[in-house]
Structure prediction request, 92 residues.
Amino acid sequence: MKKYKFSNIFIKAAVLAFVSFCVVTIVKLQFDFNKLREQRDELAALIEEQEEFNEGLKELLESPYDKDYIISIAREKLGYCMPDEIIVYNDK
Prediction:
């Protein structure tokens, strides 16, 4: 009878240890899952932003090189102006 009681306590302890291990593992996996989901959402936002940037570059490449385009590039990139223009700088 005493041997049966000892084995019963041992089985209960083993089951309790197994259940505790499973609960801790499930909680840890849930935290990891939530962290990975947030990381996925951040990366999806970055991908969307990069795709929009790429579309803008693609439109620039496909646009014709007309006179207005050349003038805008000269103004923006090179700082040029038309001969009859007056440029006013404001320090504020």
